[in-house]
Amino acid sequence: MGVRLRAASVPGPAHTETGVPNQDAVLIRQGRWGWLAAVSDGMGSRPRADIGARTLCKAALDSVRELHFDCTNRALVEAIESNWLKRLDDLQIAANDAVATCLLAWGLPDSRFRLAQLGDGLILGHPAPACGLLSRDGGSFGNLTRGLGLSWRLEDWRFDSGQLLARGDALVLMTDGIADDLGSTDGLVSMLARELRNRGARSARAALTRDLTDWPTAHHSDDKTVAIIYRV
Description:
This protein is of the alpha+beta class.
């Protein structure tokens, strides 16, 4: 058995109509060192929100590659913040102009994982892969609207950990463009894992992109981004 990662991100209709770039970002990576899924939502009121989100995902990858998996939560957060600020500085962009949220799932080849979240959006788990906050199918944790560039306190982050033990165990990270429209999350994670199980990377991304583009909620306007990690 192994772990697969799939993701998709689409701009919301409001941004498409006005020519505003997608202010969400997602990055998934997998190798001998383990795997990472990072999702970020740039704060729309900031002029470089899209760059803030993209650089935050890259900063998360920088951080997990330089840290030991068993590092403290503080060390992880400080590394993400430092790498994010360095990338923005290289682009001559002020952090306050690029505020962005962070949803992160970092795992090892044995499928142990740790989670970190700053700001809104949602992390779901199925069936009970985490030690506390993700305690059932559809169990989740979210947060208030905070983000790097606006909040620097460790207390503003939420953390969890666990292991994807059996086939079908999964995690889903999503921005609030999806999360805010969900009436119920029960069964959502297991359904997504089943639907993607037999799809290759390209097919899975196309299917997710189609679902996000054809979003059923009337008058929806926000960007939508999702990352899925599941045991096969």
